[in-house]
Specification:
Blueprint: E1 3-6, H1 13-28, E2 35-42, H2 45-62, E3 66-73, E4 88-91, H3 96-103, H4 107-115, E5 120-123, H5 125-128, E6 133-137, E7 140-141, E8 144-145, E9 159-162, E10 171-173, H6 181-189, E11 196-199, E12 203-207, E13 212-216, E14 220-226, E15 229-234
Parallel strand pairs: 1-5, 2-3, 2-4, 4-5, 10-11
Antiparallel strand pairs: 1-12, 6-9, 7-8, 11-14, 12-13, 14-15
Amino acid sequence: MSIHLAGGGWSPELFVEFLAESAARAAGAGRAIPRVGVLLVAEDDDAAVEASTKYAEMLAAVAPCDPIVTVLDEGDFATSALLTDIDGLVVGGGLTPAYLVAVTPIVDEIRLLVADGLPYLGFSAGAAIAADEALIGGWRIEGIPVVHEDNAEDLDEVAVEPGLGLVDLTIEVHAAQWGNLARLIAATAAGLVSGGIGVDEDTVLIVGDGELRVSGIGNVWQVREGDDGVIVSILGADTLEAGSGE
C-alpha cells in the first residue's frame, strides 16, 4: 500500500490507484466496497457542505466506494472515530495550518495504520502535512516576500512544523500553478528545510514500498541543496531521492 501526495486539481486520475489499493485492503477484510475515511476542514457551513459533496462525488465517480466524510471547523480536532473500520484515508485541501491542528490528537494512530498498510491520500494541504517537516504556509522569510501573499495560509513568516511523518520529504503543492515552488526554494536557501518536492496540480506522487511513481499531467519538482546554491530539477520517478518515513 502507498502514500499518495496530490498537488491539487480535480483530475480523477489522482484517485485511481489510491482507490484500487483501498479496494484491495477492503477485500482482505471481507468487504466488497471499500470504506474511505475523508477528513475535511472548512471555514464555514456553506464551505463544509460544498467540500463534503465534492469529495464524496469525486471518489464515488472514480470507483465504487463508501466515502465516510468528517468535516471539522477550523481549530477543531479529529478523533479516532475518523479512523474506525476504514480501508483508506483521504486528508483534503484547505487551510494547511488548520489541517495540522486537526490531526494533532491522532497523529500516532494515523502513522500506525499507514505502517500497517492503510492507503493514505493527501490532497493539497493533506499532502503538505504528510511530511516529517511540513511547510505549512507563510509568504515572507525575514520580512522578504518569497511567494504571493494570497498563498500565505493566514501566516506571515514561512513556517515549518512537525507533520504526520509519513514521508521524509518536505512537500509543496500547487507548485507551478500558484508559484509555491518559489517558497520551497526560498525555504531551502534559508535553511528552514533541507530541500523537498513540489507537486503540480492534477499530479500525484505515489510513495510505495521502495519505489516512487508520478501520475498525472503535471510535473514533480525536486529542490535540493547544492555546493553553489539551491538546485531545482524536474523529475521522473526513477530519479526521485526519498522514501517513506516509516
